[in-house]
# Entry
Amino acid sequence: MNLVEPSSGVPELQRALPDDAMVIVPVRNMVLFPGMIMPISIGRERSINAAQYAVKAELPVGIVMQRNPEADAPTPEDLAPMGTVAAILRYVTTPDGSHHIICQGQQRFRALAYLDGFDFMVARVERVADAGGEDDRDIEARFFQLKERAVELLQLLPKVPQEMLLAVQEVDSPGMLADLVAGYVDIKPAEKQELLEEVNLRARLDRVIDMLVHRIEVLNLSRDIDQRTKASIGQREREFLLREQIKEIQKKLGEEGGDNAAELADLGKAIIDADMPEEVAKQARKELKRLERMPDSSTEYSMVRTYLEWLLEIPWKAPEPDAIDVAQARQVLDDDHFGLEQVKKRIVEFLAVRKLKPGGHGPILCLVGPPGVGKTSLGQSIARALGRKFARVSLGGVHDEAEIRGHRRTYIGALPGNIIQALKKAGTRGCVMMLDEIDKLGTGVHGDPSAALLEVLDPQQNNTFRDNYLGVPYDLSQVIFIATANMLDTIPGPLRDRMEVLHLAGYTQEEKREIAKRYLVQRQLDETGLSPAQFTLTDAALMDIIRHYTREAGVRNLERQIGAVCRHVAVRIAEGKATAQTIDAPDLGEILGQSKFENEVALRTGMAGVATGLAWTPVGGDILFIEASRTPGSGRLILTGQLGDVMKESAQAALTLVKSRVSALKLEPAAFEKVDVHIHVPAGAVPKDGPSAGVAMFIALASLFMDRPVRSQVAMTGEISLRGLVMPVGGIKEKVLAALAAGISTVMLPARNRRDLEEVPEQTRAQLAFIFLDDVEQALAGAIDMGLAQAPAT
# Structure
């Protein structure tokens, strides 16, 4: 910055200033008192001319406040009648071109008349002295009172410079003290102008003293409020201290009330109408009282508000009794699903018991089966049969206990668990809730969600389920829970014990055909915009898709293939090449490509040492080929095909069993001494385990050493013992269905699995011949032509 001295650039006067005239500098929103030193920014051209002329001529200026601060070119009517004579101590310009003067007030003056003909404002003035000081004792008393109050005020203010306190204490003139205090105290400019215009010293002292008393009272009150607020709101809410102070001040002034009063009143009414249990309603009222005491800008305000909204939005009222019509429920299940007779029968039983005893604790059903067999849609059908809302909670991949029980409210962004969220979405606590993929729950560092489900799925405990976010008990006893899973092995034992398991096996080819004709084709017509008149799929084509383009337990892939055929027809119709089309079996090669599956049995069972086994997988049954070969060696047993420990033990047991029956098989004992036996199960990338391939391994080894092939249309399953007994295995229904799909005509099963055939559809049983095995001799007779009497087929 630069200190500016008078320069030749200062405009010259057109005529000389009269003796009683003074250069006037108007200012906005500020008042200069006598004795004060104050910097003033000047930006208007006339004010700059006035200041520069006064500096050049070494004359004082008159500082006058504008009554109308908006006026850029003020007239005499826009200015206050009185101002302060000031000496310019410094004239400063800054690098950005702005101008500043540092002035020291000297004396009051009154403007008598403004003069024309100058480049700046000039007025005839009358200097004004203090009046009313004839009673020295009265003025002296007010003087000491003012000084005492001024010192008290400065001590209440934070971070006041010590020099200011000393300056106030050292002033010995009553008028100067009044002007000093009035200049530095925080009041409006209009009030300061009134004090400047008050020339009566006694009256001015009284007004300044009253002003100080008021300010001191406000500061004392603010300090008390500050102390009370800090003690009440705690460490985490100190940032809201100012708003609490305003609140207390409004309370003292009788101005209570806020913008949120109506909203809080609505929340209180909603709590009454929500029909909550008394314990929950008490908690809600407590949180509402906390909310009323908080500022609405507080972070905790939004947390409490969200919590109350959750309490009000989840359903608390008891559901209406179910109007269960068992006949209608059976019809709904039959309309929605083809087959699954045993499962539908159990669901009807479940609904009948529910009708006779509405308040009873029914079982938790768990539908277990491969993908695509209709587990989820069965849950929707149950909800439709009951006339209840359906809610679905996906548990696949959930590895955090908080996903079930919710997060505690102390965490930012906390929410209730998936159970409570699903109930809020359903709008009733009497819904049908499907816990989908319960076998795919994970376990992580945040707890075990399956353990949290133990309370949810226990009818004796879930009437007081406690979500961590809500923090109050919630009754889940009216919710009908239905779980789904692809396999039971991964479900923890205590959780599995709380559910009644219903197995859904894969569909037969005939069932798939009926499902496709009833549901899948129409659904794909709707998806592609075709009408039944534009598209026809013959039964032969449909069976070809089932046999040669899909191999699954469910019907999802079948629906995809039907969709591909529909899209092919849709393209032709959209291009105008056809108005309608019928798809027959010969057309499928052009649309879907070559057959994806073929009859592997005919390809692999034409030589000795190959047997066809039956296996169970999480997605249904499958056929399993056991291949055995021998090479010159030292009697080793080689196992390949990524076999598990149990399956390797079955292979060793089968080889031992063959060696123990060399006489019955008409073999030489030396045939095993100088050869290595290699057993391989193809599809080596797929892990395989379990004891049910024992019979197939025994037959493959017997066929190898006897050099007689196994009958190509025979498949088998069963565990063997070293005594030659055939032990029962699981997954009979899935294995039988897989055998039929692979073109097998005869299935050999352990005799103790005879009762499991009741689960196999009667139509499937009619297409197959069954041989029931008690020991391996019967297996040999049924699988290999030994010139012996064959075991009877049933």
Notes: Confidence is low (pLDDT under 50) at residues 1-10, 788-794.
